[in-house]
Amino acid sequence: MKVFGEASDGAHDRHGGQAAHGTQRAIGHGHAQVFQQRQIVLAIVTREEEDPSFADERDKLIELKGTAYQFAIFGTGFFLAMGAMALGQPPEVMFGKVMSIPDKVMDVYAKLVTPWKPAEIHAFEADLKAGRIHPRDAKMKLAWAITSAFYGASGANAAQNQFVALFQKGNTPDEMPEYLTDCRETLLEIMVSNGLAGSKSQARRLIDQQGVKLDGATVDDGNLIVNHECIIQVGKRHFLKVAIKK
Prior knowledge:
Layout: H1 2-45, H2 52-86, H3 91-99, H4 106-112, H5 118-130, H6 135-170, E1 178-181, H7 187-193, H8 200-208, E2 212-214, E3 217-218, E4 230-234, E5 238-244
Parallel strand pairs: 1-5
Antiparallel strand pairs: 2-3, 2-4, 4-5
Helix pairs in contact: 3-6
């Protein structure tokens, strides 16, 4: 019994030792996994951030490339549209179409279509922004430059003369109501106060529908300050002569 007990105790010790050894190995393996996970987390947490200057330069480069692509796509479409407008059309038609473009895109036409140098484009934009040139006169200058690029100076001069004779003189009646302005009123205010529109909202709708002209040129800005003598036309039959108070 004793021998058996001793043998049993020895076997038990051996099995216990093996189990303990296996447990230690499992614990060791678990510690290794935990340690590895901690190292990964530590690497993520303590990772050095990108150099801000490098990130800024990278973002600027991405933005610059995006702008270049957009400009290339827009420019291609724009020139195709201008080419389509020029093909098979006489200079007076081109001149009239340029005169009907919205005021807010004049600078785009100046940059992409005219043969002007950068200094001339900058001066044109500065005069518009400062109000040193009336949008109608600026558009006339722009229309002449674009038409002359396709048809030469003689074609542009003939188109301009025809436009002035047809739209600024020929269609206006000899007699029309006259209004005196103090050069501080907007086009919307003048239209409403003289019965050309029932309200500012209606005046805006007429302008949005390209139904309002100033000296023969379509207007797209109702907040334009009328500070010079001109003729306002609403639709085909309503005219108002604006004069300056002295």
